[in-house]
Amino acid sequence: MDYDVIILGAGAGGYKAAVHLLKNKKKVLMVEKEKFGGECLNYGCIPSKALIEMSESIYYLKNMPGVSIDYKIDMNAWQEWKNKMVSKITGNAEGQCRALGADIIYGFGTIKDENTLNVNGKDYTAENIIIDTGSVPARIPGIDNVYYNREILGIDHVPESIAVIGGGYIGVEIGTAMAKLGSKVYIIEAKDRILPEVNEELSKAVDKKLRSLGINIMTSSKVLSVSKDNYYKVKTENGEISSEIVLMSVGRIPNTKDIGLENVKIEMDGRFIKTDNHRRTSVKNIYAIGDVTTGPMLAHKAFYDAYVAAENIIGNDVIVDYKAMPYVIYTDPEISFTGYVSKNSKKIMTSAVPRALTMNDSDGFFRIYYDDDGTVTGAAIAAPRSSEIITEVSLAVESYLNIKDLLLTVHPHPTIAEGIHDDFEN
Amino acid sequence: MDYDVIILGAGAGGYKAAVHLLKNKKKVLMVEKEKFGGECLNYGCIPSKALIEMSESIYYLKNMPGVSIDYKIDMNAWQEWKNKMVSKITGNAEGQCRALGADIIYGFGTIKDENTLNVNGKDYTAENIIIDTGSVPARIPGIDNVYYNREILGIDHVPESIAVIGGGYIGVEIGTAMAKLGSKVYIIEAKDRILPEVNEELSKAVDKKLRSLGINIMTSSKVLSVSKDNYYKVKTENGEISSEIVLMSVGRIPNTKDIGLENVKIEMDGRFIKTDNHRRTSVKNIYAIGDVTTGPMLAHKAFYDAYVAAENIIGNDVIVDYKAMPYVIYTDPEISFTGYVSKNSKKIMTSAVPRALTMNDSDGFFRIYYDDDGTVTGAAIAAPRSSEIITEVSLAVESYLNIKDLLLTVHPHPTIAEGIHDDFEN
Q1: What CATH number labels A333-421?
Q2: What is the CATH number of domain B149-250?
Q3: Residue A399: which of B20, B394, B399 has the nearest Cβ?
Q4: Is the pTM of this model over 0.95?
Q5: Quick one: which of B299, B271, B290 has its CA closest to B44?
Q6: Which of A156, A410, A423, A425 is the mutation pick for testing B, counting most B CBs within 10 A?
Q7: Domain B3-136+253-314 shares a fold with domain B333-421
Q8: In A93-140, which ranges are E strands?
Q9: B385 DSSP assignment
Q10: Active site residue A300
Q11: What would the pLDDT profile of B62-73 be if each residue is shown by its tens digit?
């Protein structure tokens, strides 16, 4: 065998798996069809956070009493910065893998048999294969020539108006940022609420705030057709929208096409590769991680899958446990969820958290869930920077801590995190 | 007796003690000489965070490639907003105490004997007294007519230049904010480094960044005299500075004057009121909490003291344990510390955390300390929003968690909190 492990796809998960395997003295080949770092680093979570960060600062200053600002955005110059920033992250990741001894081949890899992968016309063999081929945006047949996440995050100007088809996290994050940068935003969602993937209380908090930002949200509204002349015309069941740009964000589908799954007869779970809780496929030396497997399509879920798969390859019997898998959407309010809902909970409003008031940004709430004996089971938080504080609750859930452990741990004042602590009475 | 408890001083600690006692059915009188909420809410942590928040957004946008901004700050309008924001917080706090049944008297209270407090010429009696009279800025004899925290946070314009005497947290926080708002800032510190109250690695990270912001830092430099004509002239051992404003921030001293401590012969610890680990003074039914007692002068330390004192009054034998008392300084990088140093640690640079790069704000480091068996003992973090993530480590320290619990808890991507998690290898 040429390698201990071949990793097909150098996205977030593939990269983390490689580092873990390499540090454990495994010989690793990484095969990547496009860019090191995959969708998240190059076209997803990283560039979107940069855009959102800028939009939040502008929005904050526009609304801060006593501050008057005029600003101009040269998106080409911003894109240049963003691309350099992304290259730094992806370059560091690739450099780390190479420094640890990985071989990296750019090309489209196809599995020939359970130990063989073909890339650029050549076969490579390995004891194990990890599939981390990620996902691509879902498309609606008959609707072409629209923007997807890659195009919108590579845009050269702030559009005058944008119609977002699909009110999931990608559409809502981009819609929020564009509205704060001054675009007229429409969000069209077929289900009866935006962010149908999160619990209703969180979804409602976002819906309320986005409407107050002037975003036109249409729920229970299917798109019938999209045409383009000078502007786009989006026909929905409930009327027609005219917009400069249309962003299609109706979900993502796993990348399983043409990678040779049929050659090894891997069992599928619908469109996804079926795996057990070791992230092992029906072929025992082939693993699958990240977006090609079921579960939330999140980079940190891929990281975790990567760790589990790598540990099993190393010889440690580790299984996945998604008990405290966080879910964050960088909209307004920023919402975060971890763990699971239980019938007991404590809730306070973000407006009761002094730090939020100092930021002039106090919409939302904190809800901490716990069992009858006080064991923390999860949290739903809608507050600025909730992404940064949700891990405190994840750690509590993972470690079976009691609500009193959260309440009696001293939280620095003033912080948003005080909303978790609350006062010890509530 | 008129009351179960009289609380002298309705600052952060007094307020929290009152709420806890009231919810436990105690009859409470609060006596406040000035403003509900005390120094922190009215003139300290709350208004300073609002100022810092604004300065950070302006600095971020000024430095973001692709963004050009012109801005004007009307500090009078900002002060109006800030005062309303503060009033909302203090009003809510006072309203909560009243709704729970507290009596509140405004006036200067003096302890007459161990059960009696005199205010506005009238005596009130109680089973217990809690002293939470806070602190005032230290002054240098012979130097008058300068700004202290109250004056600088109430300022009506951004000064052209400011000399900060004292490089502790107050001086450094305000100096950082003013530099980002465009002031020429000098920081004069008698000791050999700024922020002598924190560990040297954190202090160095701030020193480096502040110098890059153009702040002129003079250490090992005593101030000899301050005179004022049109501008201030500050003579130091190492030369003379001319500045529009002088901020004096050379520490704070406990407020123990004229409150009748001599009438009950309370034992002192230098300038501070001596307390045991129940926050009980040498007079067994009199407690002291917050800045008048030894320990860091922090609102959350006062909150914690308040909880402990109130619990003991209620009849529960609770003692203070400062094992994981966080310390946060909102400068650049924002620095946070919790727990204690041990000989084992893991460190990564903030520049390795992707979320920091998306914010164009990646100076600093994460250092997690742990015992030989892996038990987490503390952390020193210099990174944007470190105040929000330090509690994850405090919770780990309080709960005797292992470094592996931090490493294996899934952190959402991309967040600053990932710096704690790092990758599972390091």
Answers
A1: 3.30.390.30
A2: 3.50.50.60
A3: B399
A4: yes
A5: B299
A6: A410
A7: no
A8: 103-106, 109-113, 116-119, 122-131, 135-137
A9: T
A10: no
A11: 999 999 999 999
